[in-house]
Structures are given as C-alpha cells and as structure tokens.
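Why run this: before we spend reagent on co-expression, it is cheaper to look at a predicted model of the complex and decide which construct boundaries make sense. The entries below are exactly what would go into the expression plan.
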Amino acid sequence: MVRSPPTDSVGLVTQHKATFEEPLPLVCGRELPRYELVYETYGELNREGTNAILVCHALSGNHHAAGYHSEHDRKPGWWETCIGPGKPLDTNRFFVVCSNNLGGCHGSTGPASINPETGKPYGDQFPIVTVRDWGRSQARLADELGIRQWAAVAGGSLGGMQAMQWAIDYPERLRHAIVIAAAPRLSAQNIGFNEVARQAIMSDPEFHGGRYYDYGVSPRRGLAVARMLGHITYLSDDAMRAKFGRDLRGDMSFDFEQVDFEVESYLRYQGQRFVQDFDANPYLLMTKALDYFDPAADHEDDFSAALAHIQCSTLLLSFSSDWRFAPARSREILRALLENNKPVSYMEIEATQGHDAFLMPIQRYLEAFSAYMGNVAREVGA
Amino acid sequence: MNPLRRELEIVADWIEPGSRVLDLGCGDGTLLHYLVERKGVTAYGLEIDPRKVTRCMDRGVNVVRADLDEGLDDFHRDSFDHVIMSQTIQAVRYPDKLLEDMLRVGRHGIVTFPNIGYWRLRLQLLLKGRMPRSPALPNAWYNSPNIHLCTVRDFERLCATMGVQIRERRLLDRAHRSTPFINLAPNLLGEVAIYRFVRGSETL
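The model came back. Tokens follow.
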C-alpha cells in the first residue's frame, strides 16, 4: 500500500475515455464503426499547446504509465521511472498523454468489447490492427485534446516503433521522436518467438477459436506460457544467471509437475500474474502488430526511403544486453536517418537487464533522456 | 581567452555557412554548438564518453555515441563537407586508417593536435629524462588517453605517404597566438597544430 506516493511521482491519477463515432478505416481493409480510447494525462497543457508528449506503450503495457490509481496500489504505472516531476518526461514542464492501444484489454476498444453489429463480444471477429492504425486512432485523440503538434512522441520497444510510425505518417505533428530499444522491423527470430507465443494461446483447449468469451472461459494456460516465453526474451542471459543461476527450490523432485529450479518458479509466477491482468486475444493482436510493423515494406524494402519525409528530430537509445532488439537494430535506424540528413542522436547504454532495461532506473539512461528532453522543453517553451 | 577559443575560431573560419560537418570525438559539443550557432551548419558529433554524449544532448547537438576505433561505417562516402578531428587523433588506435576514413566520408578534413615536438616538451624529455607533460598533455604516461602522439613533421610525413594534400596549416603557441614567428620553426615553436586537408586526387 502506498500511503503517500513519493514526491517524484505524479501521485494519484484517474483515467479518461474518449469516444469516436466516426468509423476508423484500418490497414487490413476493414473498419471499426466506432471506438473508444482510454488514456491518462500527467502535467498541464500550456496555453500555446506546445508541451504535449505522447507516450506509446509496449506489447503488454497500457495507458497507466505513471502514478497510482488508488492508495492501495502496490505498484505505480509502467514507466514511473521516466514520467514525473524532475524525471526525463518532467510533468512540471510537459503534458504527458498515454492511451491504451486499440485491440487492448484495459479499456480501449478491443476483442472483448461488444461488436455493435452482433451485440456480442468481438472475439475472433475483431479486425487485426496495425501500428499505423494505432497512430491514426491516436491522431484523433490529439485533435480532441487540442494538440496540433506533439513536442515529442516517445516509447520503448513496440512503443518506440509506434513513435517512428507517427513520424512517418504525421510528419508535421511531432517535433521529436524518442525511440528506445526498438528496431526498423522484426527479425525472423523475433517473429518466431511471437509465433510460438500465439501457438501456445491457440492450442489451449479453452481458446475456442478466439470466441472463448461466449463460453465464459479463458485460455489462461496458453497465455501464461506465452508470457513465460516472452519474459525470457526480455531478460539477458547474464541477468537470469545472476538472479537465479541453477538454484533449486529444494531437493530435486524427479517429477515434471513440481518446481525444481528457482527460474521455473519465477517464470510460472510471472505467467500466473500476467493472466490476471491480460487477455489472450489482445496478446495475439499485439504480437501480430509487431510482426507486421515494417515501414520499409511500402518502399521496396528501403527503410531509408521510408524515413525520407519525416520532419522531427530523433533520439535513439539502446541497451547493451538487449538481444530482443539489440543495439545493432537501433544502429540500422540511425543509419537510415543519417542517410536522409535527419537530426538524430544515439546512445547505446551499458545495462545488464536486457530488453527490460528501458523500464529500469539506470542512471546513464535517465541522465541522457533527461538531457535530451530538457533541450526539447527549452525548444517548445515548456 | 578560453584556450579552446582561438582554435575554434580558426576551424570555424574554414567552414562555409550551411555546410555539413562531422566532428570526431566531439566532447561536450562545444565546437559543434559554436558552428551551429555561428555558421548554421548541419552537424553531427561522435563521442565515446557517455557523460559527454549527455552534455551534447543537453545542448541540442546531434551526437552519436561511437568508438572511433571501429571506423566510420555508419556513414556513406561524401556525406559531409568537413570532417573535423579536434585534439583526438592522438587518442585513437589507428590514426592513419581514420584519416583515410575521414576523407572517404567527407571532402575536407580538419585535424588539430598537441605537437609533441614543441620545444618545452623536448626540453623536458632532454633535461628531466621523463615523459613530457604540459597543460595540453596533463596526464602521466600510464594513464594518458594519448597513445599516438606525433610531431608536426610526423603528421606531414604521414599525409605525404598517404597522398593527403594539406591545404592550410596554423600553429599556436602557448598563449594560443598564431604569429609569423612560429612558422620559422613550426615543429619547435608550435604547441597546437591545426591542419586543413583534402584527398590527394582533389584539384584546387
């Protein structure tokens, strides 16, 4: 329980909901007749409307990026390390907005929402949404909030890719893209991991072809396995060795059901905890959106050409032990930006935590991020 | 006068407004910030020290954390009008390869370095028999980042060997002045050497 939040936290926050009655055309060719986005905001929008920052969440994230929903919350929002007074996304200077992506399971329209055409949950009928669709849905939110141009669009992992997509699709609507631990597109290995995760979910007997809401069940075991796999890829080999090694919980059980190693216990716990707060269909959708993300695809596989018309400056950050989206992938983005003479800064940060490092309080990371954002703040008069 | 100031001014004089500049070992971004402000250049800096990279970001200077010993593979041929290496060449592992790479990615190269042939340094070695130290070379031999110190004559010899054409040379004394007197014996009297050069095949 948090009686009084730390002074560098945004403290207690409430979520908002925006409803859009105009149909949203999607990349897949279908459209959503109407949709809702839940979002949170931290800080104040200045009179000129120049200090707004859009934060994009990663695969399993949501709109609750900072602060606490109640004094009983044990944990703050997912990017508490970077959002708050005096932090890189300084809420004394910036107005920070974070929305739950379409297709999610935390309040924005998604597979568990009621399909207005059938009166039942969408389930497997929910269209496959892409990163580009998310940008479009968020652009309407920006309109509604009166934000013509974001000072920055920021995110890590999938969120970083979304920031890039914003820069490509709405060049006039952001001044800076903050792209952390991302890649120009997924590798075969990345897609492979996602496919195993999806197969884990879809082969759960409770999946029912995605229509499990109708049966009042949920493919929790499959989703937990998917998360266990994902979790391994977010940590580094070194981090897992340091945390668990080959430590045993007790004596070896010579039994498959029992937990022998600490790492097994940890992964099972992570899987179980995850399914309490996440749904299987959105996990399928999010992994698919990641797989499909490929700005170069529209430009004969030339990523540099995809970035030719962006107008923002870019900050790229990567972490040395991240093997899911390794520093070499950020360098690909760097090279494409340099080829286009775009303003860009890049820093690889030494970190042992693997891909998850972008969520961690790593001093060098926070200092660099803060320095860059301090300059952004001066630029927009925040 | 800020000791770096004179050097900055000389380098800045060689750079046309609006040109594209790459600074190798850009430190805290002082030079690039100066060039952006005074000359409106498009500039990128490379720097290995994360604290200095962060200082550049704070200043709004485009900076890439990079190890110069790994070369300039992120950049295409002729990407820049000027590639600058200020007080850095003596600290890299392959100065000759980097010079070559500078002139691959840029049309003009500018290099500044502390001249180890400066008379005070020679005298230290001669009289004390120890590795020379000076305000420009403050470290002891064992903890100095400077692993490839050279003299004015050494540098010019390397350029000649590599077919690099020196276009201009400026030498500064300890007071950071550039007097005609220095050119009587540049390798003896110059404490800081500043060069502008182009590829050998480049015509005037």
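Chain B has a mean pLDDT of 93. The longest helix of chain B spans residues 3-13. Bring this page to Monday's planning discussion.
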